[in-house]
Amino acid sequence: MKALLTFGLLFFGTGQAFSQEVYSVNYESQADVKVFVVDYESQADLKVYKVAYASQASGNEGKWFFVDYESQAKKSIYFVKYESQADLKIYFVDYESQAGWVNNSKKQLMY
Questions:
Q1: What pTM was computed for the model?
Q2: What Cα–Cα distance (Å) separates residue 72 from each residue in 23, 48, 75, 96, 104?
Q3: Regarding beta strands 75-79 and 63-66, do their DSSP bridges make them parallel or antiparallel, or are they unpaired?
Q4: How far is CA 72 from the centre of its chain?
Q5: Which of 1-5, 56-60, 83-87, 88-92 has the weakest average pLDDT?
Q6: Would you say 22 and 73 are in contact if contact means Cβ atoms under 8 Å apart?
Q7: 21-24 and 75-79 strand pairing
Q8: Distance between CA atoms of 36 and 20, rounded to whole angstroms?
Q9: Backbone φ, ψ for residue 59 (5° rounding)
Q10: How far apart are the first and last CA of the chain?
Q11: Tens of pLDDT along 22-79?
Q12: How far apart are CA 10 and CA 49, in angstroms?
């Protein structure tokens, strides 16, 4: 029974932990990750596609759903003014198939 419970927590718990439901906070000190939006795709660590529904934001694949309340988010982000202030550089793409990580060394920021 204990092994089953442990397996369940590891297997089913990870899906939600990696979900990309984000909330944009007003202050840098409130953020889990500081984000800068770059002008060109080639400058990005992550190419982000904004999905229409929370159910589409599962995984750590760059498909983000912006929630209305901070308590609903898995990650809180703050958009910084300067690239040098950012933990993560993103580029918003037009198509879901374009979303994904460019710099895998930054992937842990969104776990």
A1: 0.81
A2: 8, 19, 9, 22, 26
A3: unpaired
A4: 13
A5: 1-5
A6: yes
A7: parallel
A8: 17
A9: 90, 175
A10: 28
A11: 999 999 999 999 999 999 999 999 999 999 999 999 789 999 999 999 999 999 999 9
A12: 27
Sequence-ordered list of residues with C-beta below 8 angstroms from that of 101, at least 6 positions apart, any chain: 45, 46, 47, 60, 61, 62, 107
Residue indicated by tokens 């374009």: 98
Query: Between the CA of residue 106 and those of 20, 22, 45, 94, 102, what are the distances in Å?
Result: 14, 17, 7, 22, 9
Q: Which two tokens stand for residue 75?
A: 């990650």
Hey, what are 13's tokens? 């718990």
Distance of alpha carbon 111 from alpha carbon 60, whole angstroms = 7
Q: How far apart are CA 71 and CA 75, in angstroms?
A: 10
- The full DSSP string for 65-107 is EE-SSGGG-SEEEEE-SSGGG-SEEEEE-SSGGG-EES-GGGG
